[in-house]
Amino acid sequence: MSSLSSSSFRAALGAFGGVVRENVDLAPFMHLRIGGPARLFVEPANEHDVARLVRTCLDLGYPLRILGGGSNLLVSDAGVEAVVMTLSAFNRTVRDGATVTTGAGVSLPSLMRQTKDAGLAGLETLTGIPAVVGGAVAMNAGTRDGETFDHLVSLLVINPVGEVEVWGKARLQPRYRDGGLAGAIALHATFELRPDDPKAIFARLEASLRKRNATQPVTEKSVGCVFQNPPGAAAAKLIDDAGCKLMRVGQISVSAKHANYFVNEGGGTCNDFLRLIEQVQLRVREHAGVELAPEVKTWA
Fold first, then answer.
1. Biggest alpha carbon distance in the chain?
2. Are the CB atoms for 128 and 216 separated by under 8 Å?
3. Do the Cβ atoms of 63 and 174 come closer than 8 Å?
């Protein structure tokens, strides 16, 4: 697709209400602030734009990547030769009693503020996750206290062949850190919450944030937890026990506060991060006989 321009791709899309740009630097969208450009960067305006985009990429044989909040993602230093789509236009939340439907581009912190103000509880278990709803659904983001799918009852998705579908609870098959979307793209998520006193909800949010701030490097550039927790174990403890805290490659280092976080101290690269992943995996394998699986996603 190296010869494809934004104008010719827009022409291939036909009736498309969104924006198409070329060679957009992705680093500003990443929590790590590293990564190269997207060959084409597309911002659809509505669900019909997304469906059309999926079908056009299929017809032309172009890879399509969905950019969420950039909080669990590594982008190659050379960038990605792909169509990268952002769902930032899907930014509305509507409420019907205790049922809340929210767009894929709404941030989890914003959603929790809105539901707290409305006196609706249930999402506090996701406190501190710096994701947007679409990304949280795609990976079933969670904490020790709960997961995205705990209160999720339906999704509006674009399936892998570019059709709009509504998936009810019976269709949802989330797993640990995997929403089980099987290539579908979530545009709207509906949660069933429970009424509660906003002050009580706020107290729980505050308690979770204090705990997170005390134990995780939330003010530094990171992608959250780098590795999944193996069955019956904590990745952070395995990394710490293997003597990996403060290990570094270039300007990427293992956090002194939480060993399952790698931080960009300034000027780090994706290649540095990937090399540090390999070195930590090797140390843990040699020390504990455990193979750590990355939780962070990589675009190369």
1. 57
2. yes
3. no
Average pLDDT score over the chain = 95
Task: Look at residue 3 in the predicted model and tell me its pLDDT.
Answer: 63
Neighbours of 2 (CB within 10 A): 5
List of residues 6+ apart from 67 with CB closer than 8 A: 26, 29, 73, 84, 85, 86
The angle formed by the CA atoms of residues 126, 45 and 118, to the nearest 5 degrees, is 35
| Alpha carbons 46 and 41: distance in angstroms, whole number | 16
69, 130 Cβ separation under 8 angstroms? yes
Residue 149: what residue type?
Answer: F
- With beta carbons less than 8 A apart as the criterion, state whether 146 and 138 touch: no
- The answer to whether residue 53 scores a pLDDT higher than 70 is yes
- What confidence tier does 2 reach under pLDDT thresholds 50, 70, 90? low
Identity of the residue numbered 148 = T
247 to 278, 293, 297: CA distances (angstroms): 12, 18, 21
Distance CA 105, CA 128 (A): 17
pLDDT exceeds 90 at position 202:
yes
| pLDDT reported for residue 4 | 64
Query: b/e per residue, 274-285, with b = 16+ CB within 10 A?
Result: bebbeebbebbe
Q: How far apart are CA 28 and CA 149, in angstroms?
A: 29
Higher pLDDT, 208 or 195: 195
What is the spatial distance between Cα 96 and Cα 193, in angstroms, rounded to a whole number? 11
